[in-house]
Specification:
single chain; alpha+beta; Arc Repressor Mutant, subunit A; OB fold (Dihydrolipoamide Acetyltransferase, E2P); 26% helix
Length: 539
């Protein structure tokens, strides 16, 4: 606990120093004013440590703020409180913000921002601290005035001087390149343009990208206008860089090309490191240890007809309890990814870096390798799969009376599409959905009607926006945009997933566990002009 600052008697001639500091702060637009000889606030100290990593020892901090005698003792206790709160950490005799980059760091230049400026990330990073921070590559004002490009380029590994950024909306750091260590370490993307006499040039997709030469021997199967991935074959002080084609993506006019351009432009990681793939391949099936055997429960998956993986399954039945007449029990099971993705493993770190899967018209950039997402964690029909399940009890009015969570081994009774399930309810069941109609599908629809009563009573914001799906031709160009029909089968699954998420949030809150909420901002107030035309109803 920090010591209470010494009581300083105000000087009648000059006024109270703290009052003058508050007035100065107000005059400066609430920006804290630093008075030489007084211990600065925690906020000012944190900013100083971040901005001056090479002057962050206690002695240097005291010297910078002119602290002597008892004020140095006060500074020591304030810094200790920052350490106790995890806001700073010791690095030998200096202090630094947790995860802060050293003053000189090796960076890999990986992408550009929306203005075309180069962005790098540290070449070495402790992934337990989260995603490596972004670093904006600086140019001097003189170089900018001459239109000179930065020394480094995309794919380069550089040694750089690091500066903490004061722009909260941009990267956490900026940097000035000291030396290029290794040029073009990664594959680059561009459009191949044929030239007379064989070979051609790579035209960059980035505004400030680098044009390169591609010889006929390094061309592969690329044709004029193809989007290609290349690696650097040879560089020199004179002339254009020589490139070698690694992969032909296809015509630049196709959706496949547009997807790859988006992947590269936004720095979306789309290639799994070998360590992650090896860990996924080595994953083994789970056992029944510490799991309830639910393989007899006829849970089914209902997904789009072209779904490659099945994450969740549902089942519903009437509540047999006499205390809940006409109530229902809804069960939702989710593939137990946690069995395969252990904390701090290579798979866990890669998933944290990606954050989510990214969907394009022609491809999916998954968060996890296919061995996990499309196999071990896909609730396939008739196959034993580990799952986390929640059983939720609802009254006939749709009020949730309670829920319990279970770690189970399940076996999906069937895999149906939304259209199959809906057709069966509408009296047009096919051979697969027909036998499931009475024992499984009708109880699910009855449960949905019960849940819908509760939803109607809550009156949530209804945004029933149709899904739009881009249909591609064989050559990758757009054929048409399809708007699938919105079915009750879609709404049934959505409502049951919402209730499962609410139950999970309630359980985590009860256990006092941290969790993330998605909160929608309040709607904007109408403009003054619109308000002027608004007439309130008469009393």
């Amino acid at each position: 606990m920090s010591k209470t600052p010494r009581d300083r008697s105000p000087n009648p001639a000059s006024g109270n120093r703290r009052s003058r500091r508050a007035e100065a702060a107000g005059a400066a637009g609430d920006k804290p004013t630093i008075i030489h000889g007084e211990v600065p606030s925690r906020e000012v100290l944190l900013e100083f440590i971040a901005d001056n990593p090479d002057r962050a020892s206690k002695r240097e901090i005291a010297k910078a703020f002119g602290l002597k005698g008892e004020t140095r003792v006060e500074l020591k206790e304030v810094l200790r409180s920052l350490e106790d709160d995890g806001l700073v950490q010791k690095d030998r005799k200096s202090l630094k913000r947790p995860g802060a980059l050293p003053p000189v760091t090796v960076l890999d230049i990986t992408t550009r921002d929306k203005d075309g400026e180069l962005i790098g990330r540290p070449a070495e990073w402790n992934e337990e601290l989260g995603v490596a921070p972004a670093v904006a590559i600086r140019q001097s004002s003189a170089d900018r005035a001459r239109g000179k490009a930065p020394v480094g380029g995309l794919g380069d590994r550089v040694l750089a001087k690091i500066f903490a950024s004061k722009d909260r909306a941009g990267p956490a750091y900026s940097a000035r390149i000291i030396k290029v260590i290794d040029r073009h370490r990664n594959a680059l993307l561009g459009v191949y343009r044929e030239m007379p006499g064989g070979g051609g040039r790579l035209m960059p997709i980035e505004r400030r990208g680098e044009e390169m030469l591609i010889s006929a021997a390094d061309l592969g199967d690329a044709r004029d206008g193809d989007l290609v991935e290349v690696e650097i074959a040879r560089t020199g002080r004179m002339g254009l860089t020589q490139a070698r084609v690694l992969n032909v993506i296809g015509s630049v006019a196709s959706e496949k090309a547009i997807s790859m351009i988006a992947i590269y432009s936004h720095g979306i990681p789309h290639i799994f490191p070998q360590s992650v793939l090896d860990e996924a391949d080595a994953a083994e099936q789970t056992s029944m240890s510490h799991r309830e055997d639910w393989r007899h429960v006829p849970l089914i998956t209902i997904d789009p007809h072209d779904a490659k993986d099945h994450d969740d399954a549902v089942y519903a039945e009437r509540d047999p309890s006499p205390d809940n007449p006409d109530g229902v029990i809804v069960t939702v099971a989710i593939a137990d990814v946690s069995w395969y993705i252990r904390p701090k493993s290579a798979l866990d770190r890669e998933a944290l870096k990606r954050g989510n899967s990214v969907y394009f018209p022609d491809r999916v950039v998954p968060m996890l390798p296919e061995r996990i997402s499309n196999d071990l964690c896909s609730l396939r029909e008739g196959v034993d799969r580990p799952a986390l399940a929640v059983r939720m009890t609802f009254s006939k009015e749709g009020r949730k009376a309670g829920h319990t969570f279970h770690r189970v081994m399940m076996k999906s009774a069937a895999t149906l599409s939304y259209q199959q399930a809906q057709a069966a309810i509408d009296g047009k069941a096919d051979d697969k959905a027909g036998p499931l109609l009475e024992p499984i599908l009708r109880p699910l629809w009855h449960a949905y009607e019960v849940l819908k009563r509760g939803r109607d009573r809550r009156q949530p914001l209804e945004l029933d926006m149709p899904e739009r799906k881009i249909i591609l031709k064989p050559d990758g160009t757009v054929d048409r945009v399809h708007v699938p029909e919105r079915l009750d089968a879609h709404k049934l699954i959505e409502e049951m997933m919402i209730q499962a998420n609410v139950s999970a949030a309630e359980t985590l809150e009860k256990k006092r566990q941290p969790l993330v909420y998605r909160i929608h901002d309040a709607p904007k107030l109408p403009s003054r002009r619109r308000c002027a035309n608004f007439s309130p109803p008469s009393a």
